[in-house]
Amino acid sequence: MSFGDDLLDQVPRLRRYARSLISNRERADDLVQDTLERALRYASRFRADTDLRAWLMTIMHNVFVNDVIRASNSRPHIAMDDAGIVDDELSVDGHHAASLDMRDLDRALQQLPPDQREVVLLVGLEEMSYAQVAQALDMPIGTVMSRLARARRKLRALLARDTVLSA
């Protein structure tokens, strides 16, 4: 297989990770495109004996962080959420419970700091090992483990709070 074919095989994972990082589908697709563009531009720097997925996640991480920094420096962010919707007004039958759980999890993930959210998504969603995440994010494995522990603790608290509020 060629390098281009190997890149194409990674697109679904990149899209899934990008959409988890950024809830806006178009911006997530832009992140994937920017990642692939950089991967092609710097293909000569990729070593064939290394993990392509980790290399691409490193590129995506760097593009994402640069975009966040650029956005925070350029304009204020106004959070838009559906907090104005009163849950009692919405009736939901049983088969939608899983969908609501996913919505709650996504909302909780979006409340995590970006550095914690990245680690959770790479370990939980992409099923990368701690070592692979450490390599992709260029940090010590201990930092990966502590960020993951803090993120899990915060997610449990956020999800427990949502459960109490909806009861």
From TrEMBL:
Encoding gene (name): ecfG_2
InterPro entries to which the protein is assigned, alphabetical: PhyR_sigma2, RNA_pol_sigma-70-like, RNA_pol_sigma-70_dom, RNA_pol_sigma70_r4_t2, RNA_pol_sigma_r2, RNA_pol_sigma_r3/r4-like, WH-like_DNA-bd_sf
Domain of life: Bacteria
Family recorded in the similarity comment: Belongs to the sigma-70 factor family. ECF subfamily.
Sequence ranges assigned to domain PhyR sigma2 in this UniProt record: 9-61
Pfam families according to UniProt: PhyR_sigma2, Sigma70_r4_2
Organism, as annotated: Paraburkholderia solisilvae
GO MF: DNA binding; sigma factor activity
Protein's name according to its UniProt entry: ECF RNA polymerase sigma factor EcfG
